[in-house]
Amino acid sequence: MNTWLSPAVPEPLRLRRWLLLGCFMAGLIQKPLISFAWDVISFTKVMTDLSVAGAGPTLMGGTAILLRQIFAEKGQELVGKMASRLCKQGRVWTKLPLEQLRDGLWHMEPGDAGKRKGRVAQFSGPVWVESLLADPGFPGNFARAAEVVGKLFDISADAEGLSFGDTCQELQGKSKNSKTRSAKLPGIAVYGVPHLVRECVAARVSIDGVAVPISDADFMSHLRDMHDDRTSAQFAAIGVSTGADARAMLRAVLGFARSFHSYDTARRWASLDLLDLPCQVCESGGVLSAVAQHRRPAVKRPAAALEVDSSVVPRRAAAAPHPRGHGVHRRPAQSLDPRGSGVPMVSSPRSSPIGSQAVADAEVDDVTWLLGRLPGSHGELLALGGFMKGMISAVPGKGDGYDRQCAGAVTKAWLNTEPGPVADSLLACIRGRIDVPFTLPPYACQECSAMITRPGEMHADLRGLSSEPGS
């Protein structure tokens, strides 16, 4: 592969890096690219339909913000239908359609109207729309945010798009132009802003193939530290502390996709970029969390890593009864993280040195334990990956507000089958006892019909899968 996985790398670090690739191969991580996530697929469909219908950038920008904050598929469908009507009428999102959207979401089942578990769960769906309408800066801040996000979708010849970093700064209220109105919105900050912009960038690539460039500085400023207990900690665990480290990781992952998968699968990885790396490390953290709970069920999870289930959180901010008979709903009294993660404010367990070495040792042990249970043969890994595609974490009867591709839930489902240690395991491959299973299944080149079997062989139809990102 490359030096990122070299035997010269200290074993604990190398094992963590191999675990990430192992989870891709075994299907424990279902969304190694943000464009593979089901909510982003739904998001992209709505945005593509609007683009085809000729919607203006401001309408598309406002729609993108609402889609991200609602998350659930049926709620996103409602946003899409309303946006389509606004497009036909030549209008944009203003107070009246937002109030209609809010009321429509209140009449849905909770699992269909917003995110129900995880980050931003307490500040999603109709609760967020209502907080937007009640924000002192409304409607000016939302109009400005829609304009900023809309520039990412402006396909006109004279469009002056913003960079990834500039878009994030604008949405965080850090505009370089002090005379422009703030584009900062309630509940969308350090975590929410880059997540929104990442989805927009992925959708733009799907619409017309144009990728918004992401610099190393953008990665360090907005992606590496989206949240402390997952992205920051997990990037540190695999030794990614600079933009150069992130690009070395990109080369390794692209090389893996090219050498492990068939062409039809590997070509889907061609758009892999820096914006996808937070997904990968966050999901790998979920895998390890599931392993830790499985092996040590009596140990309580750190508070900062807890996911919030909003099914137990009151849904409405106002104390007065809903005018259509939905009862009284109050926003929870606990304060939300001002960075916009939607998680109650707690101190990170990693900020304290007490027990930190014990935690690190336990994580290394969990990594070794899991690698010892993943098969080391190419065919068996492919079979396991295919089997795990059916282990999607949808919660029956609770709607799409629950992340059906959550790596932690998928891993729990697999661990419930009680997998035992494998003699010819991926751990044995890494430690040199058996060959590493990177042999490309043969396929016919689309250009010359030659059969390709060597991992490093490149033909014209593989130029999009170059190991150098951006080439």
Question: Can you give a write-up of this model?
Answer:
By secondary structure, this protein is mainly alpha-helical. The protein has one domain (3-346, 358-430). The chain is 48% helix and 1% strand. The protein has a two-stranded antiparallel sheet with strand order 1-2. The longest helix has 19 residues, at 277-295. The two termini are 18 Å apart. Residues 302-355, 439-447 and 451-471 have low confidence and may be disordered.
Produce a short descriptive summary.
This protein has 471 residues and is mainly α.
Layout of helices and strands, plus pairs?
Layout: H1 11-26, H2 38-52, H3 57-70, H4 73-89, H5 95-106, H6 110-113, H7 125-134, H8 140-150, H9 164-171, H10 192-208, H11 216-223, H12 228-237, H13 243-260, H14 263-266, H15 277-295, H16 356-371, H17 378-388, H18 407-415, H19 426-430, E1 443-444, E2 451-452
Helix pairs in contact: 1-16, 2-3, 2-4, 2-10, 3-4, 3-8, 4-5, 5-7, 9-10, 11-13, 12-15, 15-16, 15-18
Notable traits:
single chain; two-stranded antiparallel ribbon; 19 helices; 2 strands; 48% helix
Whole-number radius of gyration?
23 Å
The residue fraction in helices comes out at 40-55%
| Shape designation | globular
Question: N-to-C SSE series?
Answer: HHHHHHHHHHHHHHHHHHHEE
Unreliable stretches, pLDDT < 50, 5 or more residues?
302-355, 439-447, 451-471
What fraction of the residues are assigned to beta strands by DSSP? Answer: under 5%
Number of strands: 2
